[in-house]
User: Which sequence fits this backbone?
């Protein structure tokens, strides 16, 4: 049994971490912090956990040593205090974007400022098990993943691994996302009369998660375009690829099956009939699954690779717990074997 503490637990990712770890047979949640809600029950912000925990929030000043520290803080917070957190726990998982990029120059390019602790970047392993499983087994410091980057990366990995897409090929990822991607703190854009019913392009170009796709895939011509839609949970990346050489459907099937046949959370979804022929995020709510599918335009050779995830799970807390399992030698799927709901 390991002792895990969560720093910044009052947001949506913190709530998902709690939901997952409360049912983990090898984890004891030692502490969970919120400066705003210190002293109050965690069910104040996570009412769905009523009857499952009597934990109360503490402040960071009350943190005690533990085995694993999971940081669910706003961007920029972890990087400022990483040396302090490293004194509290020998293993850290940071769910923010602070340590996702290994190259300080890439960080500055996409985040518009120098990294406050660049010497720590190379110490973190990027927390996508489908890419870094071996490194995660011996890691002490693990970064989170961007939800948009995760959907795009998982859509692209079979094509990159098979050499169907190479560095010189153009890739455009059109990503539709739900409102929970904006976090638990409200703003003008999340105000219900403004958010409800939208199909709003909020980042047609220049989204920061592009840097994670460049880093993971090694591609050079990657373009992300993000659109808000009428969802709470979920993200679906529809990735358009223009390969350097023609490819047929059988070759695509071989590529996807070869890359994902042993992945416990990736399902290939490409049915001939019915209304759920291709990946759909609604079916994945609350799960750590990633559904991946594809289509091929025989006239132009354009490949359309699709990946759907729950942005709070496979795109955040679920991947973090999957990484924790690998880091600590537990079965990788422990506490992550939920089945999606239908209808929802």
Assistant:
């Amino acid at each position: 049994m390991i002792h895990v503490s969560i720093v910044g637990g009052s947001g949506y990712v913190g709530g998902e971490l709690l939901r997952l770890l409360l049912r983990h047979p090898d984890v004891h949640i030692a502490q969970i912090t919120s400066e705003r809600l210190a002293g109050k029950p965690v069910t104040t912000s996570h009412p769905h956990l009523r009857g499952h925990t009597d934990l109360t929030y503490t402040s960071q000043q009350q943190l005690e040593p533990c085995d694993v520290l999971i940081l669910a803080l706003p961007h920029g917070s972890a990087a400022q205090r990483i040396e302090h957190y490293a004194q509290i726990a020998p293993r850290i998982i940071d769910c923010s974007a602070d340590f996702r990029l290994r190259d300080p120059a890439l960080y500055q390019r996409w985040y518009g400022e120098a990294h406050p602790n660049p010497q720590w970047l190379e110490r973190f392993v990027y927390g996508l098990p489908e890419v870094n499983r071996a490194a995660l087994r011996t890691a002490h410091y693990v970064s989170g993943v961007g939800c948009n980057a995760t959907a795009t990366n998982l859509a692209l990995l079979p094509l990159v691994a098979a050499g169907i897409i190479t560095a010189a090929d153009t890739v455009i990822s059109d990503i539709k996302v739900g409102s929970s991607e904006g976090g638990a703190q409200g703003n003008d854009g999340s105000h219900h009369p403004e958010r409800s019913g939208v199909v709003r392009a909020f980042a047609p170009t220049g989204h920061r998660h592009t840097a994670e796709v460049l880093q993971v895939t090694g591609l050079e011509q990657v373009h992300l375009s993000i659109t808000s839609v009428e969802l709470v949970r979920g993200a679906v990346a529809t990735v358009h690829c223009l390969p350097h050489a023609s490819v047929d459907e059988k070759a695509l099937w071989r590529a996807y099956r070869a890359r994902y046949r042993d992945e416990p959370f990736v399902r290939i979804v490409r049915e001939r009939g019915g209304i759920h022929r291709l990946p759909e995020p609604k079916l994945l709510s609350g799960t750590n699954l990633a559904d991946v599918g594809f289509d091929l335009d025989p006239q132009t050779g354009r490949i359309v690779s699709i990946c759907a995830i729950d942005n709070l799970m496979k795109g955040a807390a679920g991947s973090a717990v999957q990484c924790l399992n690998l880091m600590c030698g537990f079965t990788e799927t422990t506490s992550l074997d939920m089945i999606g709901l239908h209808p929802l």
In short: Residues 175 and 226 are 5 Å apart (CA to CA). The domain at 2-145+314-327 is CATH 3.40.50.720 (Rossmann fold). The chain has two domains: 2-145+314-327, 147-311.
